[in-house]
Amino acid sequence: MSTSEFPDYALEEVQVVTEPRVVKAIFDPLRGLLLELLLERAASVQELAAAVDRPRSSIAYHVKVLHEAGVLQVVRTRMVRGREESFYGRTARLFSVGDVRFDPGRETPGFFETAAREAAPAIQADDLRGLTRYAWIDREKAAEFWDRVMELVAEYGRLPRTSEGTRAYALLTAMYPTDHPRLAPPDGDGDGPPAEG
Questions:
Q1: Bridge partners for 26 per DSSP
Q2: What is the pLDDT averaged over residues 144-173?
Q3: Which of 16, 61, 66, 75 could anchor a disulfide with 89, C-beta 3.0 to 4.6 Å?
Q4: Based on the structure, what is the number of domains in the chain?
Q5: Is residue 136 assigned to a domain?
């Protein structure tokens, strides 16, 4: 269980997600936003609806999808005007996508598209930090490196979320196999620069 003061309820540090329906649930843009808000503290459907300026009925639907997917939990309840109101929290601080296979031709999660839309104002303001690097490594080395990246992501996710006078900064991480081109080995014996011709 997490020992960080954020959020105000107990949750696991990491939950590995392996079902396509769960991945689709968490990578929906609005549901992803709701999950992010719940890293601050537990909240009711009414509070979530007010935070994202959406109808309560719409947010109730999305909370139900996340709850049924096993990534939201009811962390406490209270009585309000004779009715029980539930406060929801995440089941884990970090959802790590495991080995998931999506049906060909079906819609897959669009978290890169969501990030691109969200980052547009930062690009306009020249305030986007981004970098792509390529390395030719085996699967085991890639897995080892990704574990180290996830440690940094976990640290980032434990930062205070409610400091006054600060801005939200999104951190997007990705690692994927690609057919990026590479240079052929240099001519000669490899002990120096290629001979001039």
A1: none
A2: 82
A3: 75
A4: 1
A5: yes
